[in-house]
Amino acid sequence: MKELGELNLMSVNMPNVEAAHEEVAMTEAKFDVALVGAIGTNFEKTQDLQVMNYKEAMADPRVEQVNEGLKVEHDKFLKYGVFKAVDETELLPDDEVIDTTCAIKPKPTGEMRSRVVARGFKQKEGKSYDENDKSAPVINLMTIRIMLVLMCMCNWYGYLIDVEGAFLNGRFSNGERIFAKVPEGFRKWYPSYVLLRLMKTMYGTIQAALCFWRLACEAIGYMNYERCKADPCLFFCWEGGALSIMMLWVDDCLIAGPKEKVVKAKNNLMKLFDCKDIGELKEYVGCVIERGNGWLRMTQPTQLQKFEDEFDLETHRGTPQTPAEPGTVLNEGEQGEPLNGEQQSDYRKGTGILLHMMRWSRPEVLNAVRELSRHLKEGTKKHYKQMIRVMKYCKGKAKRGMFFKPNRTWDGKSPMKMKISGASDSEYMRDPTRHSVNGWACFLEGCPINCASKMMPIIALSVTEAELYAAIQCVMDMLFAMRVLLCIGIEVEFPMIIEVDNKGAVDLCNNWSVGGRTRHIEVKMYFLRELKEMGIVKVVWKKGDDMPSDLFTKNLGGTTFEKHASEFVGKDEYYYEKKNSRTTKTTTPTELEEVGEQAETNLGGIDAEYYRVWSEIIEE
Known about the structure:
By secondary structure, the chain is α+β, with helices and mostly antiparallel strands. 36% of the residues lie in helices and 19% in strands.
């Protein structure tokens, strides 16, 4: 970190490393600006981007670039005064010596990023770290989406910068004495009898992330930005009646607001830290950001290419129109042929990629991926086939992604009450374990800011209880969104509306009766009732066919899937393809309904849920 010592914010005792500064500048000039990993084309297959250890990197054809990357890393350690070379005879009996390792990561931009990491798991509690003073915060996913919605509403300018050597800036606060063995990639610069005493934190040390966060908070506070009390990695500033914000994602800082304020904040931050100027927001947290007039879309093309490069997608014929077969449940009872060791490893890797995608860019696959993630320990060929189907679905609709288009605009200055809403649903005991699946979504000005698909930890005794449980989870997200907005000085419209498609759950929330089969769930009822009485939340009924959260509780098909998915990924080209294809069908919705009614008559009353699923299968 630069200049804070001169500003008397802290004492900085830096060694004389002017030569190292010059070498860093010369060496870094050879590299292009590197992003987090969503943008870049300097690779043939995604396997070329796999992380390598030191021995693997030395055997790689790109070894010259690897050595340059190691030199850049070593010069950074010198520049920031991270360690001091000492003779091993200076060790005291109680001193701790930890190992290090080198990780070399090829970037999509062509850079070979080298990172020297301490084996922090060898640190001893009470000696080199405090057990109660080690956890660093990370900005909440909902907070990121809330700020992206505000960017769309205000047409804010977004700028991304990356703090160089972030974890090399942290300072130990408890007088820790930590020694490290010379890393493999650094040994050519030191004699064999030397150890490195850490004067600052480094990557891998347990307290590194927390120390950097504290330093970043101090620096951003010096820039007159205030930390949000609801999310410790969100900072805001009201200046001249206009709002601007800063978000910390580990060492990436996103600044958003009016352009002149963003540029000013960027310049000030780059005076305090050595930063890589990434530029206008086009990529964030591994997603490509596409912006238009009042809208924003997040996609992950690099992750999609991984599917094609690293998995045999041809094991599933055709291009599925939905992530999973409509009406099915992927459960442990359907064992089938188990996967071998290599296949199980691929299954875990593939599901891990899908988990990241469903979280950031593809919410419509939430339920299908949730089912896949339940079988990471012992998967079968059936589970693997289902994973490939989800991948092919995502690949077949590559341009689809999380979509934000607020219902209103805002100038970022004048008072305006933001509308927060929610929708929850539950699929009662569909899973063979008899646990219900809850799904819910939270919206800000009509844009999704959180989506979830989760199996209940308990077995509900009724549909009403399961629906109430889902509603509570949704309201908790709505309250968090409310707190974030209020903490940064933005008003919220009350009551916030949550839609539930079960009349019993709605009635329980809106009256004070106690008795019958609902006495055991009184705590949850009282929570919603109190919020309703305070005018914070209003629970209303919504028709089940129009409930978007139905997407997160079961595997839908046909038009129903596209209808609900459009609430989260927008009405894109794939939505209209499906809509247009319906006009070519010979069976009309009225005819289908008549068939269903006739079936009910013939079978003496078929269950409505099975009829609905069967209708979707016919449509598909």
